[in-house]
């Protein structure tokens, strides 16, 4: 993993451009989303999904591979201080 840190101003704000930027940054480090999926024993769709919707596990893996925090790559998904923004409550399968 490369320990290069990117100032927030260098990470594109536009979501579409940011997706391409993330893929490019992985590529120049010798990775791809498919390669990360293989390393973690999952389908290639799982890391791809993190580019389009909240997926905390893959946001963390992708960010760590780039030497960043998930909140750096997806600031709209996190409240200030890199905490997850509240989402829908989880279903409790123990209650009827």
Describe this structure in words.
The mean pLDDT is 84. The protein has a two-stranded antiparallel ribbon. It is built from 5 helices and 2 strands, in the order αααααββ. It has a domain at 10-76: 434 Repressor (Amino-terminal Domain) (Orthogonal Bundle), CATH 1.10.260. Helices cover 43% and strands 4% of the residues. It is mainly alpha-helical and 96 residues long. The protein has helices at 15-28, 33-39, 45-50, 56-65, 70-73, and strands spanning 78-79, 83-84.
Name the CATH class of the domain at 10-76. Answer: Mainly Alpha
Number of strands: 2
Judging from the principal axes of the Cα atoms, what is the shape? globular
Category by helix and strand content = mainly alpha
Mean pLDDT: 84
Instruction: Give helix % range.
Output: 40-55%
Please state the second-level CATH architecture of the domain at 10-76.
Orthogonal Bundle
Low-confidence stretches: none
Q: Write down the Rg.
A: 14 Å
Number of helices: 5
Strand content: under 5%
* CA(first)-CA(last) distance: 46 Å
Q: Which strands sit side by side, in order, in the main sheet?
A: 1-2
SSE pattern: HHHHHEE
List the helices and strands and how they pair.
Blueprint: H1 15-28, H2 33-39, H3 45-50, H4 56-65, H5 70-73, E1 78-79, E2 83-84
Antiparallel strand pairs: 1-2
């Amino acid at each position: 993993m490369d320990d290069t840190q990117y100032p927030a101003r260098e990470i594109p704000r536009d979501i579409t451009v940011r997706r391409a930027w993330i893929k490019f940054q992985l590529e120049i480090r010798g990775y791809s989303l498919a390669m990360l999926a293989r390393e973690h024993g999952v389908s290639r769709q799982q890391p791809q999904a993190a580019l389009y919707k909240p997926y905390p596990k893959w946001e963390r893996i992708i960010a760590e591979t780039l030497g960043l925090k998930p909140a750096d790559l997806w600031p709209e998904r996190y409240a200030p201080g890199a905490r997850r923004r509240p989402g829908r409550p989880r279903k409790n399968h123990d209650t009827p």
